[in-house]
Amino acid sequence: MQVVGSFIATIGWLGLALIASELLSTLIYDLGQWVGYRLIGARVVALVGFRYQLCKVDGHWKFQRPLTAYPHLVAMPPVDPKRFNHALYCFGGGLFNLLVIVLSLVTMMQFTWDFNLWLFIFIIWVWANTLKVGQLLPMNFHGRPTAAQEFRAARESTAAMTAAYVTATATALKMQTGSVADLDAAMIVMPRNGGNQNYLVVRQAFLILEWGLQHGLSTPDLLAGLSRLEPSFNLVPPADLARYMTATLYWNLFSEHPAPQIIGWYQDLGVQQLLKRYEPLANFKLQAVYEWQINHQSKRALELIDAGLKFAQRSNASEELVWLKALRVRVEA
Question: The whole model's pTM is what?
Answer without folding.
Answer: 0.84
